[in-house]
Amino acid sequence: MSLRIITLANHKGGVSKTTSTASIGACMARMGKKVLLIDLDGQANLTLYFIPNENEIDASIFDSLVDGAPLPVKHVRDNLDLIPSSLEMASAEIALTNLLAREQLLSKLLEPIKQNYDYILIDCPPSLGIVTTNAFLAADEIIVPMTPELLPLKGMRMLDAFVSTLQRVKPNLRLGGVFIARFNHRKLNKVVEQAVKSRYEAITMKTRIRENIALAESAGSGQSIFEYDPHSNGAKDYQTLTEEIISRNQ
Known about the structure:
Helices cover 41% and strands 14% of the residues. The protein is an alpha/beta fold.
């Protein structure tokens, strides 16, 4: 199987983007795939999933993007590596403004190491700036986690327009999937889910991630959902979603 680089993106915060990146990556690794996770968010939540002690991080993606240092790859689990973020990434937009070819820095940094992996998953900040542009132009496809509320649906239109703009630079970039996270059976959830399906029929994932307290608890524990509570609905749903993503790439 050839390498797939997938960016998980939604410029609205709180839509389970980081939880999804961590969970899908951990699941792929458990299935024997070689996986690299990249944390581009200044809050560094993806990093904290696997390296809860910040003192263990001596270099971050910021040093690579801004200073050209080699990517600081940390081995965090069997088959699973991570490029950590740091609080400095919050200022990355400003730091990158004057750099040459700034939108494709991440693509160039990945060149020497990407052949080591089956999947590279990139977690973005909740904005559509230079950092997210780097994540999009490095990727083969964008997967969008959404919560079943009306606001994220409006945001999808902005994301559509953003991807269309970037396709002028990278014509093969595509929206590869949309899935619903934090789903429950309230009426609004079903209304929004139906709207997503009708708008993105070809790419809406069959799997939805149910609202699950274990997912929220695992985030601060230094463990993926499969380590924290392997029998939870969260673990079951992410296992199914991961299998669906892999099967689409076969």
